[in-house]
Amino acid sequence: MPQLVRRVAILSSSLVLALGACGGDDGGTPIDAPRPDGRSVDAAPPALCINQKDADCGYVPEPLLPTELSLADQRTMAARFNPAQIHTGADVWAVSVDYLLAQGGSFTPLLQVAEHDGRLNFSYDVDETTTVSAYQDPQPDLLTTDFSGLPTTATSGRGLVYFVDGPGTNTGNDYGDETWRAAWREVQGSTDPAAAAYPPLQYAHFFWLSKADRLLAIQYWFYYPYDKFTNNHEGDWEHVNVVLRYPDGGEPTFAMAQFSFHGRQLGIDGADLYRVGDGNGGDHLVVFSGGDACLNYVPDCYCGDESGGSYPYPGRYSLGFKEDVAGMASRPGHAFAPDAYTIQLLPRLEDVDFAAEPDLSWYALPFIFGEPTVEANAVAAIATNNHRAPVGPNPAHGEYDVGIEEPDDALPFSGPQPFEVPAGWTLVNEPPSTVFADMPPRTDCVPQ
Fold it and tell me: For residue 208, how many other CB atoms are within 10 A of its CB?
């Protein structure tokens, strides 16, 4: 089974995780020696490039090697900076992929494989006429079988993509057509996240956003078995990048965060974000997850209550439609403190021992997390790929191991609102009031 970090009591001094030696008789670099870029180690750090493409910033993302920061220290650091989350929709939280791979309730997983011709907007255009079982009967236990070495190219020369159709269905224009929520409740066995079969979990992957500038990114991935928004698909992967300043021989500090929602990306300085402490030296971004919206250009008013997108503030976002994100006084949402989450590390692929951690086999493959396509919720009104299940975090995903590639200017035209901080949470940073704006009016339909 994978090594997980539930939550550890961290002394601040124990997290001074040096990547290089300090000066002294050990032959390390003297503390005032110039760096290869000409700056001394104690020089002021370079200014952050907040909301530009990596190429515009001069940032060149690179892998983080275990020789630079051990896997054990990565787990510890990931727990120190993992996000709190405020969810808009009820009955949802980020869980382990084990939810999809394990026997649960009346659900038995079946690993299937199909051919494809390429990728479209993070989603495989799967030829479902080629879909077959990846194994002959009997199917192996997918949590204890290492299937990371399965082929990724068909004899035809086309690519192969693997998937498991999860519990329940997510299809059609009416909520009455869906069975995924009932299946979720059956498998989980409790509406209390802490008591559920699959409690809250976040995946963490490290990379250098800019090694030259000592900017270390922790990419936190959130797996939701279903997306139920104005589009609908099975399997949903969302993420944020928490970017740290990590000086040679120094302690990591929060620098900025990069948010991803509906294919858009947005960077924000850490001084302009809500962050909470944990009593053990942690510094945790608050992510406002999901939102609801209604489409008024379909025959019937169609609404979705949980987009899964990761937002910097509660409020109303104008994204070609109006999306309402909980966390404000009038709609507090469902709060998950940082210590509610187990942290599962996703190292570089070459640093994973799949024989020891077979339940991470999906990480090595082009893998989608649910039925490859489901019925679109409204004929041509939805882009054709929006009802396809997305690729998970690995090199097959276009936003894995990178910072901002397509910056978005939607936020200035939206209405971010102040956060209603849950009782017992302690802010370590609060945005200035200039961040907030009036809520734009809703102009979409109203469900009957």
Answer: 21
Q: Tell me the two tokens of residue 402.
A: 């990178």
Instruction: Pick left, alpha or beta for residue 71 (phi over 0 → left; psi -120 to 50 → alpha; otherwise beta).
Output: alpha
User: Structure tokens of 434?
Assistant: 């200039």
What does the domain layout of the chain look like in residue ranges? 65-435
Tens-place pLDDT, residues 391-438: 789 888 878 999 998 888 777 778 999 999 999 999 999 999 999 999
Long-range Cβ pairs for the range 168-177 (8 Å, 24+)? 168/226, 169/371, 169/374, 170/226, 170/227, 170/228, 170/232, 170/233, 170/234, 170/370, 170/371, 170/374, 171/232, 171/374, 171/375, 172/375, 172/377, 173/298, 173/300, 173/302, 173/377, 173/378
Residue whose entry in the numeric block shows the structure tokens 């966390």: 327
Peptide bond into 225 cis (omega under 30): no
State how far the Cα of 21 lies from the Cα of 329, in Å rounded to an integer. 48
One-letter amino acid at 176 equals G
Pinpoint the alpha helices (H) of 8-70.
54-57
pLDDT digits (tens, 9 = 90+) for 142-201: 999 999 999 999 999 999 999 998 887 766 555 556 787 888 888 999 999 999 999 999
Pairwise CA distance, residues 358 & 147, whole Å: 7
201: CB partners within 8 A, 6+ apart: 4, 94, 95, 96, 223, 341, 342, 343, 344
- For 53, 69, 206, 246, the CA distances from 209, given in Å and listed in that order, are 11, 15, 9, 11
What pLDDT is stored for residue 22 in this prediction? Answer: 30
Side chain identity at 378, as an amino acid letter?
A
Tokens standing for 379? Answer: 């004929």
Q: Could you give the CA distance from residue 309 to residue 85 in angstroms, rounded to a whole number?
A: 11
CB 393 within 8 A of CB 219: yes
Task: In whole angstroms, give the CA distance from residue 268 to residue 272.
Answer: 7
The order of strands in the sheet holding 415-416 is: 322-325, 315-318, 415-416
Which backbone phi and psi does 340 adopt, to 5 degrees? -75, -15
The whole-angstrom separation of Cα 29 and Cα 24 is 8
Q: Is 381 helix (H, G, I), strand (E, B) or coil?
A: helix
DSSP string for 99-138: HHHS-BTTB---EEEEEEEEEETTEEEEEEEEEEESSPSS
Alpha carbon distance 225, 178 (integer Å): 13
Euclidean distance between CA atoms 293 and 302, whole angstroms: 8
Spell out, as residue ranges, where the chain has pLDDT lower than 70.
Answer: 1-43, 105, 119-124, 170-177, 228-233, 295-302, 320, 374-387, 446-448
Residue 164: CB partners within 8 Å, gap ≥ 6? 100, 101, 109, 110, 111, 112, 142, 369, 370
- pLDDT of res. 177: 61
